[in-house]
């Protein structure tokens, strides 16, 4: 080999070595956090899967959000579509994402209408509670700042978790969901969804109180987001949720605040101590889905798609602000 060829080869090898040893750009390391599956989180009587998102470098003592997907969805799609993982990075909290399995429900709906899955210490409700305990232990989270939210069947399961494990959750956000015990009150999940159940506010409240006997409070605060053109879960269910949880909190059903947010009617109901215990967003003209507002603005989040509906208001952002996450 001539000296010239040897020198050329050494130059090429040096260049390749330089590329291999050059650190990755900062943006790549900042995006290292990803959704992870967690196994062995408890007895898991509901046979659910547990996923979580923990931002890189998250300090101890931060809040935890439990986010429950809707029918036909999964944890990964719900995590990104809603914007919850974006907000977790922005504001500094972790997200637990339970996932239904087709062996439990062919449409991958959480079984909000099955008694065996909606009672304390049983089925899917117990599995989600075990996920919360595992997450708090693993990330040294703030047990006083755990929140639960979900869409459709996940929204109905949100009400289940608030009723059966009220001591675990500071607040909940029901998106296009249903009140606790609705299927039993209506005699059918479909009647509940498409028509609504006939109960007095006291009867609705009794269903929650019976789910956690002896619990004297505090009860989780509730935010409801519901489309006015939703034909899958009728807006009557938002009315029932307001009746149920104002009764549980000992509040009247006259809104203390009535205004608009991003052009959509918004109400706040305050409890005897003056704190907001129930809040509602009535999404004008929206069908069945999760409200999102794609973009890079400070109040924007989510990605439009099937059941992620761009209505100029991001549900995750509004919930996060109500819960003082950021």
Question: Could you explain the architecture of this structure?
Answer:
With 326 residues, the chain is of the alpha/beta class. The protein is built from eleven helices and twelve strands. It has helices at 3-21, 26-30, 75-82, 84-91, 123-139, 153-164, 182-186, 189-194, 201-211, 236-249, 315-322, and strands at residues 36-38, 49-53, 64-68, 94-99, 146-151, 171-175, 221-227, 257-261, 264-270, 276-283, 290-292, 308-310. It has a ten-stranded mixed sheet, sandwiched between helices. The chain has a two-stranded parallel sheet with strand order 11-12. β5, α6 and β6 form a beta-alpha-beta unit. α9 packs across α10. The longest helix is centred in the first third of the chain and has 19 residues, at 3-21. The termini are far apart. Residues 1-32 have low confidence and may be disordered.
Keyphrases for this structure?
disordered N terminus, 12 strands, alpha/beta, 10-stranded mixed sheet, 326 residues, two-stranded parallel sheet, 11 helices
